From TrEMBL:
Ranges where the Peptidase S9 prolyl oligopeptidase catalytic domain occurs: 479-695
Source organism of this protein record: Pararhizobium antarcticum
Listed GO biological process terms: proteolysis
Domain (Peptidase S9A N-terminal): residue spans on this chain: 12-419
InterPro entries: AB_hydrolase_fold, Pept_S9_AS, Pept_S9A_N, Peptidase_S9_cat, Peptidase_S9A, Serine_Peptidase_S9A
Protein name: Peptidase S9
Pfam families named in the record: Peptidase_S9, Peptidase_S9_N
Keyword annotations of the record: Hydrolase, Protease, Serine protease
Keyword Hydrolase annotated: yes
GO molecular function: serine-type endopeptidase activity
Amino acid sequence: MSIFKSLPAAPVAAKKPVTDTRHGVTRTDDYAWLRADNWQAMFKDPTILDPQIRTHLEAENTYMKAAMADTEALQKTLFAEMRGRIKEDDSSIPMKDGPFAYGSLFVTGGEQPRYFRTPRDGGDRVVLLDGDKEAEGKAYFRLAGIDHSTDHARGIWGYDDKGSEYYTLRIRDLSTGEDLDDVIENTGGGGAWAPDGKSFFYTVLDENHRPSKIFHHIVGEPQANDRLVYEEEDPGFFMGVGASALDDFIYIDIHDHETSEYRLLSTDDLMAAPKLVSERETGLEYSMTEGGDVFYILTNADGAKDFKIVQAPASAPARENWTDVVPHTSGRLIISHMAYARHLVWLERENGLPQIKIRDRQTAEEHAIAFDEEAFSLGLQGAAEYDTDIIRFSYSSMTTPSQLYDYNMATRERTLLKTQEVPSGHNPDDYVTRRVFASASDGAQVPVTLLYRKDTPLDGTAPCLLYGYGAYGISIPASFNTNCLSLADRGFVYAIAHVRGGKDKGFQWYEDGKMEKKTNTFTDFIAAADYLNQEKFTSYANIVAEGGSAGGMLMGAIANLAPEKFKGIIAAVPFVDVLNTMLDDTLPLTPPEWPEWGNPIEDIQAYQRMAAYSPYENVGEKPYPAILALSGLTDPRVTYWEPTKWVARLREMTTGSEPILLKTNMDAGHGGASGRFQRLEEIAFEYAFAIKVAGKI
């Protein structure tokens, strides 16, 4: 019997069949009309959305509110709990850079960050950018931060006020706090300063929301006069621009999900054409950091599947000059690297756990920064300065609040700078965190991180929120999360399934969850649910699954494959219309995503593969559990029509009695609400759904 009582009639989307024939196969999509024909323009001006589509989305929101009306008090309670765990007037520890130290802070009640600086060795804070002030009067506002020039005189800051991720750049005089007249539109957010602070480089997004061009802007000139530095003609590649630590080079980083290419512009001649480092070669990845007279390059060249670090002369960094510094070791994935005057630093993961490694550049001696908990997370912040022995890193676990350290790479001393405060109180001894392993159907051991209170009965009666992602090689860290304590304190087991498609167990773990092996991601997640049921951490009747974006695809897939094993499903901005999206090469991410999923336009096998697992294509006549889908109207990554169409088809096909709900944020994009407390309200809503579905309201 459904927990949702006395619901009004659910919205019924009109059917307007559209047929599409590819590779000799004709498909009919009854809900294709929900894709706005003017989506490019609508992302910049949401008021021009087709009224019929808007009316349908608003009807869905009305239905959703009715279904969740009895959780409003619970939502407020959850929000108060989550807010009570946040130190509202929190401040970062400033990072030293030249004569200043730079940081960010929040004020009590503030939604947006404020960026500040102090004299290097301490003193009064000067606020450089007040996010709350800039956000006044805007329904949505997200900052891209502020980047100061080498001479510390000016800062580039960017903002998105629609959720569409088209950022506007402004230039601020850091001594007066006033913005110059320069306005740079339609950028990817941020820029890379030239050393003299008189110009900078930035990316422009085209009408299909792709970063296709790099421009050079001279401060004080109109954007129309900016010089085109490089244009990427392949729509399948992302592009970014950055500056080296010593300000010797401007990096142009061109990549998709499996191939890299760098071009370098010497800051000795800003008007020169950027020079190619190593020509793109399908499957070859590399990233660069400057180390004085050499570059250190992280790469998978020569079969280094889990990556190695090589070096090359700064004057001749082409691939033929690469020599190994940190050789490849199978099963030890090198995630990122940094170089300083006397040390090389990298973050690696082995056996599912991270550690930071340090190498003395003179002696080649190496040592590690490691911890002993069963599951934990490390973050490597490094340093803003090149000539330093001090780097910064963070540590946390599911039970241990985040700790920030300065670490002396020469003396190996660590200094605790800050421990995350939980104002409402937190006793780590009240909770248990564990790393267990579920056996997949092919025998693979899937790590599952658990958090629960010590007094939670492990007899199958506990509700469980099981989270998963599994794409792009992204690993989900076992880090401290104050929000999920609200579930643990209500008797939930909070679980993260580290499924294939991420790099939690190395690069092979990623490859075993993509392309023709994509379904491993889905069956791994189901295996995690099976394990938790079998070992009585919970039971099928008590599991609520959650995932977002590509993890939302996972939610759609498990809903089709094993609906009986989940009490409810939360799918945030879910990538559920996989086949149609990958067939539409005008959409922002479609060509860049083909290396991850395949190109169904050109490849019949990719077409057949996606058709077999795409959640939207495979909705069937079966009893689905209660489902909550969330989307953002101006989302350029997972467009609003994907979850909207999916919900319409689910509601049409389900033979069960549980409701299918859609919540569309009409003022936001992929990341949801932009303010820190607005975001907590969204999480409180999702958790209220989980608690209601689990019968714990």
